[in-house]
Amino acid sequence: MSDTWSTGAAAALEHVGNDWAGVWWLLFAATKATFRLSLQVPLDLGAELAYAAMDSGEARDEVGWAHPEVPLAALAVDLGPASQSLDVAETRAVIVGLLDGALRRLTPLGAVDCAPSDRQLARSVGSKVVAARDVLMDLRS
């Protein structure tokens, strides 16, 4: 992993909003990074990571379907290519940080005083994000 991944992720977590656009952005970055990591590790780990990327990508798509204005306004920033000499544990930590940031933003978006459709969306998106996060946390490096 290059320092740009950790630097880019830290900047995103600091500056992205606490709204659906912020969740979408973090999931976009996490999905791209997870797919890139899946191409850098042995095939068995790569397959697990590809499924995790699909989970976070589906979560991002759900946000876009429910709030079609979000993908048009949100930043779709890619952290860039993974280094050939990446440290799987460090790279995984960056991606988990992005997913954790998305989960923190989902909590108030699914609060009791929010619209029922947003509460349901937050639950659905959250379960996919947790599934992706679990794969990353269980990953053998």
Find the CATH topology.
Ferritin
Radius of gyration: 14 Å
Task: Give the overall form.
Answer: globular
Number of helices in the DSSP assignment: 6
Q: Kindly state the number of beta strands.
A: 0
Q: What's the structural blueprint in terms of helices and strands?
A:
Elements lengths: L2 H13 L4 H19 L4 H24 L2 H5 L14 H22 L6 H23 L3
In brief:
75% of the residues lie in helices and 0% in strands. With 141 residues, it is mainly alpha-helical. It has helices at residues 3-15, 20-38, 43-66, 69-73, 88-109, 116-138.
Descriptive account of the structure:
This protein is mainly alpha-helical and 141 residues long. It has one domain (3-138): Ferritin, core subunit, four-helix bundle (Ferritin, Up-down Bundle). It is built from 6 helices and no strands. It has helices at 3-15, 20-38, 43-66, 69-73, 88-109, 116-138. α1 runs parallel beside α5 (88-109) and α2 (20-38) packs antiparallel against α3. It is globular, with a radius of gyration of 14 Å. The protein starts with a helix and ends with a helix. The mean pLDDT is 87.
